[in-house]
Amino acid sequence: MTNVRQAYLFSALEKDQLERMTETSQTIRLDDGDPLFECGDRAERFFLVTFGQIKLARLSAGGDEKIIDIVRPGNTFAEALMFMAAPLYPVSASALGHSQVISFDNRRFMALLRESPDSCFRVMATMCQRLRGLIKEIDDLTLQSATTRVCSMLLRRFEEKGRDTFALDAPKGVIACRLSMKPETFSRICKNLTHDQVIEVHAHKVKVLEPARLRELAHLESVVGLEPEEPIEMPCFESAKGRF
Q1: What residues are paired with 101 via a beta bridge?
Q2: Residues in a beta bridge with 202
Q3: Facing residues of 42 across strands?
Q4: Neighbours of 88 (CB within 10 A)
Q5: Residues 36/47, Cβ–Cβ less than 8 Å
Q6: Distance (Å, rounded) from C-alpha 91 to C-alpha 128?
Q7: Superfamily of 4-140 according to CATH
Q8: Do 4-140 and 145-227 fold alike per CATH?
Q9: Residue 118, H or E segment
């Protein structure tokens, strides 16, 4: 389970301020596929994932689902909406597997910031750091080739887990959509990496055979000569605003 204090949004708060926020918090447990909120609902609360994963998605004009983000434990989402006059959730949120989130009241958090300029500035600083990371993520999606995006994702998982064998934390189709590529492209790249003995794939588990080679492929970018294997379709620009 994730400690609330470890979340970036709450790390800037004093102890008594954090206690005031948790007084009105709500713990929500979800089964796989359960909705948390729908696109267009009034955004009166923001959320912290403490267990499992939450999928943020919206439908395109053609009715296709576009995955904006997969939020993992320790991360908050929908917090930027509290600064809008009449906010509505611009995406839908649902659970990937058994998940748990804590929801927090927007108005209470805003009142807390109004009372303490120091806390307000600390929160602004942490949100700016978060924004820089999201801008880099958009750069990666627009500038990197499909192979580089897959290798970057695998390298991050490899380094996070600290071992050469790990499970993919979402269905392959979901991961492909998050990387702005078709599922068949994701499967083809994994097959090529397996053929080149960079990785092995068994069902939903990946084994890294050549970490140095994977790291090299993860840092190749289309701007230096490696063109994308397919046209890149950006899922949505809301992701640049701090998980909307």
Answers
A1: 28, 49
A2: 205
A3: 88
A4: 12
A5: yes
A6: 22
A7: Jelly Rolls (2.60.120.10)
A8: no
A9: helix 117-143
What count of other Cβ atoms lies within 10 Å of the Cβ of residue 14?
A: 13
pLDDT at 244: 54
All structural domains of the chain with their residue ranges: 4-140, 145-227
| 133-191 per-position pLDDT tens digit | 666 666 666 657 889 889 999 998 899 888 999 998 888 888 888 888 888 999 999 99
The C-alpha torsion from 104 through 106 and 112 to 116, rounded to 10°, is 120
- Residue 228 contacts residue 145 (beta carbons within 8 Å): yes
DSSP state of 199: E
Residues across the chain: 244
The structure's pTM equals: 0.66
Q: What is the C-alpha to C-alpha distance for residues 156 and 140, in angstroms, rounded to an integer?
A: 13
**How confident is the model at residue 224, as a pLDDT?**
38
CA distances from 112 to 107, 117, 119, 211 (A): 9, 9, 8, 46
Class assignment of domain 145-227?
mainly alpha
| Separation of alpha carbons 109 and 18, rounded Å | 10
Say if CB 141 and CB 129 are below 8 A apart.
no
52-61, 176-185, 226-235: which has the minimum mean pLDDT?
226-235
Q: What is the rounded CA–CA span in Å between residue 198 and residue 6? A: 35
